[in-house]
Amino acid sequence: MIATHKRSLACKKLLADVHAITAKEGITPSALHALKLKLVALAAKKELFPLADFAMPVAEGRTHPLLVEDNDGLGLYLTISLPGKEAAPHDHGIWCINAAVSGRERHKFFRRTDNLAKPGYATVEQVGEVMVEPGSGMAMADHDIHSTVVVGDEPAIGLALYGYALVRFPSVAWYVPQFNSVRATPSRRHAAMAGGAL
Amino acid sequence: MARAPKSHRVTIVNTKQVIDCTTGQTILEAAIAAGIDYPYACATGNCGTCTSRLVMGKVTLLPRGDASLSAQQIKAGQTLACRARPRSDLTITWLSRAPG
Q1: Shortest CB distance from B65 goes to which of A61, A178, A179?
Q2: What local confidence, expressed as pLDDT, does residue B71 receive?
Q3: Would the pTM count as exceeding 0.95?
């Protein structure tokens, strides 16, 4: 109960800091970097995020237990991803910041290299990589493309801050390099969080 | 000499085609390699676009998002073609759109 209260206060403080930074600078590379440092500092307070307070994934996958959403769209979540969980390169349309509480998740960043002329067809090339682990994080801008995979034997537990609350999340464009394809889908995360997944 | 990976026969009801799928391949990978327009988007168990009914046979499921395939769906015989590797010959039908 004490952790819950302290967590709530810390998350609200973080969102207040986020608003202060973005109100002053907008969503610029330097603002995203500043947000990342804030989120990494919050994630370092492991005592605020005891695993017992959050449901583990049941499908060897990922869950997004809600931490806090505010009225104008920002969303801060705890993510729990089990070893081997992966996501193909995707663009979720909105900036996001990740920071690790524990475990390791590899993020790769891509750029699209085709001319967008053929519907459903896309090629991408990797342009960067970062391991999100305790003490580090990653920041990406609107329409950046990234892939994720949990490496090692322990779950990757971290904080994720999005420019939209997941309930209002835009569609996601998935790039599958193996098939040279791009496909857009509505996000299913809000459905999962509401217990309404198909 | 390297031994060829074991493969299983996969019958795709929507297109009435039978393809080979090795034990190291997902059903989606084998279908796309065979030129079948199997519905998918993420191919990594996150979006649920390739949700299918396993009519007959057994699969091993790779890690996936909880939102993509619930325990109830698995109980009802559903699977994700992008996460399912065959453990036997099998018959499957995709659920998300009409035959392609």
Answers
A1: A61
A2: 85
A3: no
